[in-house]
Write a structure and sequence with these properties.
This protein has 275 residues and is mostly beta strands. It is 3% helix and 56% strand. It folds into two domains: 2-84, Carboxypeptidase-like, regulatory domain (Immunoglobulin-like, Sandwich); 95-265, Lipocalin, CATH 2.40.128. It has one helix at residues 154-161, and strands spanning 2-9, 19-23, 29-34, 40-43, 50-57, 64-70, 75-83, 95-99, 105-112, 116-122, 125-131, 139-145, 149-150, 173-185, 188-197, 200-215, 221-232, 243-245, 248-249, 251-265.
């Protein structure tokens, strides 16, 4: 006897913090129950046969309502209730997600000689993404080993590690700590934060896209993101340059950064459900 329901997001994830209420035809609440770690709602309460209204709410999601009919069995089975994130927002399930450097990339593009580009990447980096039930409260913390810069040319990479550029002996790490996030589209966000580079800390925004979530071959859950930004070298006191002719510098003053990130959901050790 009682209320039965399964609460899911549009992409099939459990909404662990959902609250389900059941009201009778007069609008009086007769049952209130919370979803468990698997999004399952089960409340053993004696119910009189007839129609009831099921209302499902959760922070960060638009409320949903459905009608359930209680038969002589005394069970109100609402089936699977799908919640839509507020304003069409799509994000991974709340929790801690660890960046997987093996399946991620931190790439840079700099202009060279005024008409071509030099591409590089950092090979050693890591970080965590904390997804909140209220997306705007999510945060990102990341660290990059500055010495891991790789442009495919050993001589150039050695110069980039020198005091002329990254000065990795004095500033071995590049760090980013987010300070806020706001929605700019159904799957697009503007991430605000502080970037520490070459001993200078500046406010830097990232244009972030959420690409989706799904299982991986190793039994984990993964989320994918793409982010871009542009940095001005002079903002971080990296002023080295050479002029190849009047008005044309060997190296551009701006650096485009492109991030392709896969993150693995960290399992809460208190969760023994296997979800």
């Amino acid at each position: 006897m009682g209320l039965r329901a399964l609460v899911r997001t549009s992409d099939g994830w459990a909404v662990q913090h959902a609250v389900v209420t059941l009201t009778d035809r007069t609008g009086i609440q007769v049952v209130r129950a919370d979803a468990d770690a698997d999004g399952v709602v089960a409340a053993d309460t004696a119910l009189t046969p007839g129609p009831y209204t099921v209302i499902v709410t959760a922070t960060g999601f638009a409320p949903a309502a459905a009608t359930a009919f209680v038969t002589s069995s005394g069970v109100a089975d609402a089936g699977t209730v799908v919640l839509t994130r507020q304003a069409g927002v799509d994000m991974p399930p709340p929790g801690l997600w660890n960046i997987d450097p093996v399946h991620s990339s931190v790439a840079t593009v700099a202009q060279h000689l005024g008409f071509s580009s030099v591409r590089g990447r950092f090979g050693d980096f890591g970080g965590q993404i904390k997804v909140s039930a209220v997306p705007e409260r999510s945060r990102v913390d990341a660290v990059i080993d500055a010495a891991s810069i790789d442009t495919g040319n050993g001589v150039r990479d050695k110069h980039l590690r020198s005091p002329d550029f990254l000065d990795v002996e004095r500033f071995p790490e590049i760090t980013y700590h987010s300070t806020g996030v706001s929605q700019s589209g159904p799957d697009r966000w503007r991430l605000r934060g502080e970037l520490a580079l070459h001993g200078v800390v500046r406010k830097v925004g990232l244009d972030l896209s959420y690409l989706g979530t799904g299982p991986d071959p190793w039994g984990g859950e993964r989320a994918a993101f793409h982010a871009t930004t542009e940095l001005r070298r002079e903002d971080f006191a990296i002023n080295y340059n050479q002029m190849v002719q009047a008005g044309i510098a060997a190296i551009g003053t701006t650096l485009r950064v492109e991030l392709d990130i896969q993150a693995v959901r960290e399992v809460d050790p208190r969760d023994t459900s296997g979800s």
